[in-house]
Amino acid sequence: MLFEGNLSVNSTRDKVWNFLYTPEKAVSCLPGFKDVRKEGDSYRVTGKTGIGFLKGDYKANFRYSEVQQPSKVTLLATGSGMGGTMELKAEVNLEGDGPVNLRWSSEVKVGGSLASVGARVVQGAAQRIIEDLFQCVKEKVERT
Fold it and tell me: Roughly what angle, to the nearest 10 degrees, separates helices 13-20 and 119-143?
């Protein structure tokens, strides 16, 4: 599944970058976020969420890749939970400075129970989660 979007953030590029590149801040926008821990060159995230009738805990590992401060970063993640698995590659671009155009594209692959729920349900839920995540980033950055 491929997702793309953008939004305008009324802040400086440095503030948006610092939020996204500080794992504790960035993951605070994940649904049901509980904890994040550094493990080597990656981060371990736990939380609780639901897609359709599947609800439960999730665990994910992510790392930053292709870092071009302060304009581009790629996130690579793998996770499991709710009887399924997930792989994610997301590219985030920051353009302009005050306001900043935050543009993202992400490719998500799901397996297990998540895949059996149905593409429309999973795609709709994933789209909502991603849009909510970036809306949360916007709101938190603009408050600081």
Answer: 130
Q: Alpha-carbon distance 70 to 84, whole Å? A: 34
Please enumerate in sequence order all residues whose Cβ is within 8 A of that of 49, keeping only pairs 6 or more positions apart, or say none: 31, 32, 55, 56, 58, 81, 82, 129
What domains can be seen in the chain, in order of their start residue?
Answer: 2-143 (3.30.530.20)
Residue-level pLDDT at 46: 93
Q: Structure pTM?
A: 0.88
pLDDT digits (tens, 9 = 90+) for 15-69: 999 999 999 999 999 888 999 999 999 999 999 987 767 778 889 999 999 999 9
User: For residue 97, what are its two tokens?
Assistant: 């400075």
The DSSP secondary structure of 50-65, one letter per residue, reads EETTEEEEEEEEEEEE
**Average pLDDT value over all residues in the chain:** 90
Report how far residue 111's alpha carbon sits from residue 26's, in angstroms, rounded to the nearest whole number.
25
Cβ contact 5:130 at 8 Å: yes
User: How is residue 104 written in tokens?
Assistant: 């993202």
Query: 65: number of CA atoms within 13 Å, CB side?
Result: 11
- Kindly write down the DSSP assignment for every residue of 79-92, as one continuous string: EEETTEEEEEEEEE
